Amino acid sequence: xxxxxxxxxxxxxxxxxLRLSCAASGRTLTNYVMAxxxxxxxxxxxxxxxxxxxxxxxxxxxxxxxRFTISRDNAKNTVYLQMNSLRSEDTAVxxxxxxxxxxxxxxxxxxxxxxxxxxxxxxxxx
Length: 126
What we know:
Blueprint: E1 3-7, E2 10-13, E3 18-25, E4 32-39, E5 46-52, E6 58-60, E7 68-73, E8 78-83, E9 92-100, E10 115-116, E11 120-125
Parallel strand pairs: 2-11
Antiparallel strand pairs: 1-3, 3-8, 4-5, 4-9, 5-6, 7-8, 9-10, 9-11
Protein backbone atom coordinates (compact mmCIF):
# COMPACT_ATOMS: atom_id res chain seq x y z
CA UNK A 1 0.00 0.00 0.00
CA UNK A 2 1.26 3.44 -0.87
CA UNK A 3 0.89 6.28 1.61
CA UNK A 4 -0.03 9.73 0.31
CA UNK A 5 0.34 13.12 1.95
CA UNK A 6 -1.06 16.26 0.33
CA UNK A 7 0.03 19.81 0.97
CA UNK A 8 -0.36 23.25 -0.55
CA UNK A 9 -4.01 24.06 -0.04
CA UNK A 10 -5.23 27.39 1.22
CA UNK A 11 -7.26 30.50 0.55
CA UNK A 12 -6.87 32.29 -2.75
CA UNK A 13 -8.78 34.96 -4.61
CA UNK A 14 -10.65 34.16 -7.79
CA UNK A 15 -8.28 34.27 -10.73
CA UNK A 16 -5.34 33.25 -8.60
CA UNK A 17 -3.21 30.12 -8.58
CA LEU A 18 -2.26 27.34 -6.21
CA ARG A 19 0.00 24.33 -6.45
CA LEU A 20 -0.83 21.20 -4.53
CA SER A 21 1.71 18.50 -3.80
CA CYS A 22 1.22 14.83 -3.08
CA ALA A 23 4.17 12.96 -1.66
CA ALA A 24 4.04 9.19 -1.91
CA SER A 25 5.89 6.70 0.24
CA GLY A 26 5.97 2.97 0.65
CA ARG A 27 6.11 2.12 -3.04
CA THR A 28 7.64 3.47 -6.20
CA LEU A 29 4.94 4.73 -8.51
CA THR A 30 6.08 3.18 -11.77
CA ASN A 31 3.01 0.96 -12.02
CA TYR A 32 0.50 3.45 -10.67
CA VAL A 33 -2.01 5.93 -11.97
CA MET A 34 -2.04 9.04 -9.81
CA ALA A 35 -5.00 11.37 -9.67
CA UNK A 36 -6.55 14.32 -7.95
CA UNK A 37 -10.18 14.26 -6.88
CA UNK A 38 -12.14 16.93 -5.10
CA UNK A 39 -15.21 17.06 -2.93
CA UNK A 40 -17.26 20.14 -2.23
CA UNK A 41 -19.73 20.29 0.65
CA UNK A 42 -22.85 18.31 -0.13
CA UNK A 43 -21.43 16.92 -3.36
CA UNK A 44 -19.89 13.66 -4.41
CA UNK A 45 -16.17 13.25 -4.80
CA UNK A 46 -15.25 13.95 -8.40
CA UNK A 47 -12.27 13.30 -10.62
CA UNK A 48 -10.24 16.35 -11.57
CA UNK A 49 -7.06 15.21 -13.29
CA UNK A 50 -4.76 12.21 -13.41
CA UNK A 51 -1.52 10.91 -14.81
CA UNK A 52 -0.15 7.51 -15.63
CA UNK A 53 3.22 7.47 -13.94
CA UNK A 54 4.91 5.15 -16.40
CA UNK A 55 4.22 7.08 -19.60
CA UNK A 56 2.89 10.44 -18.48
CA UNK A 57 -0.50 9.98 -20.13
CA UNK A 58 -2.89 12.53 -18.67
CA UNK A 59 -6.66 12.75 -18.35
CA UNK A 60 -8.60 15.87 -17.46
CA UNK A 61 -12.11 16.55 -16.28
CA UNK A 62 -13.81 19.20 -18.38
CA UNK A 63 -13.63 21.58 -15.44
CA UNK A 64 -9.83 21.30 -15.40
CA UNK A 65 -9.04 21.68 -19.07
CA UNK A 66 -7.04 24.77 -19.87
CA ARG A 67 -6.61 25.71 -16.21
CA PHE A 68 -5.11 22.77 -14.30
CA THR A 69 -2.03 20.72 -15.04
CA ILE A 70 -0.56 17.66 -13.39
CA SER A 71 3.08 16.76 -13.23
CA ARG A 72 5.31 14.25 -11.50
CA ASP A 73 8.77 14.18 -10.04
CA ASN A 74 10.27 10.71 -10.18
CA ALA A 75 13.11 11.52 -7.84
CA LYS A 76 10.79 12.85 -5.15
CA ASN A 77 7.98 10.35 -5.76
CA THR A 78 5.68 13.35 -5.80
CA VAL A 79 2.83 14.47 -8.01
CA TYR A 80 1.76 18.08 -8.36
CA LEU A 81 -1.45 19.83 -9.27
CA GLN A 82 -1.01 23.33 -10.65
CA MET A 83 -4.27 25.24 -10.60
CA ASN A 84 -4.58 28.53 -12.44
CA SER A 85 -7.48 30.90 -13.05
CA LEU A 86 -9.23 29.58 -9.98
CA ARG A 87 -12.94 30.08 -9.59
CA SER A 88 -15.23 30.00 -6.59
CA GLU A 89 -16.64 26.69 -7.83
CA ASP A 90 -13.19 25.14 -7.42
CA THR A 91 -13.61 25.42 -3.67
CA ALA A 92 -13.38 21.90 -2.25
CA VAL A 93 -11.25 19.46 -0.37
CA UNK A 94 -8.71 18.07 -2.82
CA UNK A 95 -7.57 14.48 -2.47
CA UNK A 96 -4.61 12.72 -3.99
CA UNK A 97 -5.28 9.12 -5.00
CA UNK A 98 -3.28 6.20 -6.33
CA UNK A 99 -4.42 3.27 -8.42
CA UNK A 100 -2.16 0.27 -8.81
CA UNK A 101 -1.87 -0.86 -12.41
CA UNK A 102 -1.32 1.02 -15.63
CA UNK A 103 -4.89 0.93 -16.92
CA UNK A 104 -6.24 4.47 -16.86
CA UNK A 105 -10.00 4.26 -17.27
CA UNK A 106 -11.68 6.88 -19.42
CA UNK A 107 -14.06 7.87 -16.61
CA UNK A 108 -12.10 7.54 -13.37
CA UNK A 109 -14.17 7.10 -10.22
CA UNK A 110 -13.06 6.91 -6.59
CA UNK A 111 -13.61 3.16 -6.50
CA UNK A 112 -10.79 2.64 -8.99
CA UNK A 113 -8.25 4.03 -6.53
CA UNK A 114 -7.02 2.11 -3.53
CA UNK A 115 -4.90 4.68 -1.74
CA UNK A 116 -5.90 8.15 -0.62
CA UNK A 117 -4.38 11.11 1.09
CA UNK A 118 -6.03 12.97 3.92
CA UNK A 119 -7.14 15.84 1.72
CA UNK A 120 -6.27 19.52 1.62
CA UNK A 121 -8.75 22.39 1.62
CA UNK A 122 -8.80 24.83 -1.27
CA UNK A 123 -10.98 27.89 -0.83
CA UNK A 124 -11.42 30.40 -3.63
CA UNK A 125 -12.93 33.70 -2.63
CA UNK A 126 -14.87 35.73 -5.16
